[in-house]
Amino acid sequence: MKDQMYVGFSSSSGSFFTSHYVLGWSFNMNGAAKELTLSQLPKLPRVGPKQQSKFLTIGLPIVGLVLMSTVISGILFILSRKRKFAEVMEDWEIDYGPHRFKFKDLYIATRGFSEKELLGMGGCTEAYYPPPKWKLQ
């Protein structure tokens, strides 16, 4: 044997891209080489796509489904309440207009039931000036 020698490796897999790794090495000039302990060898490097977390594969779709179900249920609930409490126009109201007003409309018209807009008081009611845009007949 010479003082300096080289060892080489060669491998082939055809036209596909592959990687070959030497994870352990045992060499002895005189006699048998030491046996390798497989449990002490390093692990192979990961080749291929990174493993996804279980949250992304299981948890995220479940959270999305629950969120979407909640939104749809909320929309259906709101629509059913609107339909349930919708004002029904009677036949005479179609001809003469409604005689009911929403509190919000009254609040805006009287500027928050302001004392400045108070026209008079009598019995158990208060009368307010109508807003300028209302036409009195």
From TrEMBL:
GO CC annotation terms, alphabetical: membrane
Chain segments annotated as transmembrane: 55-79
Top-level lineage group: Eukaryota
Ranges of residues in domain Legume lectin: 2-42
Coiled coil: none
InterPro entries linked: ConA-like_dom_sf, L-type_Lectin-RKs, Legume_lectin_dom
Subcellular location: Membrane
Bilayer disposition of the protein: Single-pass type I membrane protein
Keyword vocabulary terms for this entry: ATP-binding, Lectin, Membrane, Nucleotide-binding, Signal, Transmembrane, Transmembrane helix
Name of the protein this chain belongs to: Legume lectin domain-containing protein
Species this chain originates from: Nelumbo nucifera
